[in-house]
Amino acid sequence: MKKLISTQVLPIDIDTAWKFFSSPKNLNEITPEDMTFKITSEVPEEMYEGLFITYKISPFLGIKMDWCTEITHVKDKLFFVDEQRKGPYNIWHHEHHFKTVPEGVLMTDILHYDIGKSFLGSIAGALFVHKKVESIFNYRYKKMESLFPNNS
User: Fold this and answer.
1) Please, what are the domains in the chain?
2) CA distance to 4, 83, 149, per residue, from 122 (Å)
3) Distance from C-alpha of 81 to C-alpha of 93, rounded to nearest angstrom
4) 83, 69 contact by CB (below 8 A)
5) For 76-122, what is each residue's pLDDT tens digit?
6) CA distance 145 to 92
7) pLDDT at 51 exceeding the cut of 80
8) What span, in angstroms and rounded, lies between the C-alpha atoms of 35 and 106?
9) Separation of alpha carbons 93 and 71, rounded Å
């Protein structure tokens, strides 16, 4: 199992951060264009525990896949968790944490994922999956800087 932790401070208040990240409709905006991400289910303005979201996505080599995640935990303005129910990973557990700090909001993403223990899974992980996951989070970091610039 792999673990990735990403942190970023945004110069916004907790209400603004929560409003943006708790809306499933903003997922497309923070996903790299080359993944051709498209939500295929109806989504509310704000997520809730038990919400299932389905997507079409091309995470690897342009191959289109169905992906389904469930929002399993929500603590208003503190954290939420999404877990894959159907998709390319054996395990995908993604925690999104938010904390007010003097500079704004500290966001911490904690991702646990596993692509499988097969020989092919090991090779795919080493060759491109782990790098792709890191590149997604690097893209999001830069995208958040552009959406919420530090103008001080």
Assistant:
1) 2-147 (3.30.530.20)
2) 17, 22, 39
3) 7
4) yes
5) 999 999 999 998 888 999 999 999 999 999 999 999 988 876 545 55
6) 25
7) yes
8) 27
9) 10
